[in-house]
UniProtKB/TrEMBL annotation:
Protein's recorded name: Polypeptide N-acetylgalactosaminyltransferase
Cofactor(s) this protein cannot do without: Mn(2+)
Keywords in alphabetical order: Disulfide bond, Glycoprotein, Glycosyltransferase, Golgi apparatus, Lectin, Manganese, Membrane, Signal-anchor, Transferase, Transmembrane, Transmembrane helix
Main location group: Golgi
Protein transport among keywords: no
Keyword Glycoprotein: yes
Gene Ontology molecular function: carbohydrate binding; polypeptide N-acetylgalactosaminyltransferase activity
Lineage top rank: taxon: Eukaryota
GO CC annotations, alphabetized: Golgi membrane
Gene Ontology terms describing biological process: protein O-linked glycosylation
Pathway: Protein modification; protein glycosylation
Amino acid sequence: MRRKRKITCVVLILVWLLGTLYIFWDGMVENFGGSNKPFNLKSVKVEEYLKETSEQDVQEPMRKHAFNIVISNKLPPDRSLPDARSSRCLSHFSSIPQSLPTTSIIIAFHNEARSALLRTIVSILKRTPLELIAEILLIDDFSNNPQDGQLLVHIPKVKLVRNTNREGLIRSRVKGSKLAKGKILTFMDSHCEVNVGWLQPLLQRIIQEPKCIVTPVIDVIDKESFVYTRAPEILQGGFDWSLNFRWEEQPYKRKVDEIKPVKTPVISGSIFSVNKDWFDNVGRLDTKMDIWGGENFELSFRTWMCGGMMEIIPCSRVGHVNRKQHPYIFPDGNVNTYLKNTRRTVEIWMDEYKRFFYAARPSSRMQAFGDISERRNLRVKLHCENFRWYLEHVYPNLKLPVSDELAYGHIKQGDHCIDLDPGQLPVITKLRFCSESKMAQDWSWRRKGIIVSNGMCLTSDPLVTHDYVVVQFCNYGDNQRWYRHLKQIVHESTGLCIDSHDSGKGLIVADCDDSLDTQQWEITVENPA
Ligand code: UD2
Ligand code: MN
């Protein structure tokens, strides 16, 4: 009897010891750099909030959300995550000053899986010092069920605004930014989990560089298994000329310091922190963009070109569920919407380099993109640099598709440009009002002398087309080579100049006479020879 009691006692003591140790250890890991008032999950009525996993979800777990809803529902909202930071972040972290500003965390969502949205919020409350969170501002973008957001407002820090129409993530975020009370804004998708000590390095960097938009390293939460995997190395955000976002190696082979901020030409868009005053000043996001897509380019070009900068902060890590499809409807179709938003970006910011985008995505020219005058005015008001500056200073390793251009863009006299009507070749060139959207007015003058529009060459062939300047298939012969003399365009084999004096009929070549206005041509961009 006595022995039995002794054993029970020992077992009890052991259980207590282990329990205490576990809680202490878990708290150490989870609250490192986190709150001294840890968040208590009991304040969340989890069971009430989460819906039953339906039979249909079990049959087709990827259908509704493009991630596995069955697995998502099974995971606890406060699950532990592996600390994905470099160990050097820990010592670096201890030197962060005590007083950091507060942030409003803005999460826009549309029909998000409840379990994923809740986990996003709980992970924030669990791994962030509560005194740094001004609020967690949920913007319900007109989800089918208003309760998705409504049931969460009892959670500490959580506030909710619901759109009365579907606005898309861009306008929703801007709305959030205007309502936010914090000095810093932090935007996040509604299916994220923040990692240990994620916020402090972001805030600290903004204190040092108030015009810097910072993003964490975005770790991957697998859409099928929800396994959290740290992003293998620190990459920078980049793109190709179709404006597809991609991760790229950093250009210069310096001795990589794995905890130093990494400058990035563009951000992926999902998660970033920014000084509210700076965000307001630099024009937030383009609210004429719809639903999804393209806004991260617009924000990135604008930030860099108008006096700010963008960095990825390696000691800050946030997981995001990457998925292949959009689980929601685009009222105007997803391609149209993406192209509309992207064209707005291209037309506002890319200057003469936009022709490379149009060459890569010709069909986008047909896409209407609305009025951009407000954004153009903003660009003037903020005295922004041009896109050429951006390419040279921010993204020098983006290769131009064409490298042998003497000049390109419009070839014009005043507000009239060299133009042509599509039809059977040879086609006579005309002088017409310049139009940004006419492909036929885009010319590229190559170093070997040819002047090309849409793959056709500017030609003068007295035997075949008399004096008319026409376009023909390119044969790279003498009759297709031109050179610049002052403002004139001189035909190499005949020495005659392009002249517009009879522009009703078409452009011709005539004896060169530098005093004639009809032989003076401006070209949008002329590269130094
Ligand atoms: C990527 C970005 C995202 C944004 C988008 C381009 C990453 C990891 N994420 O999103 O931040 O830059 O590309 O626009 O780079 N939402 C609404 N209303 C809508 C549609 C979406 O509120 O009409 C919400 C949605 O619930 C989610 C967020 O917006 O919280 C982003 O949408 P997503 O997760 O479908 O897009 P994703 O991850 O491809
Ligand atoms: Mn997302």
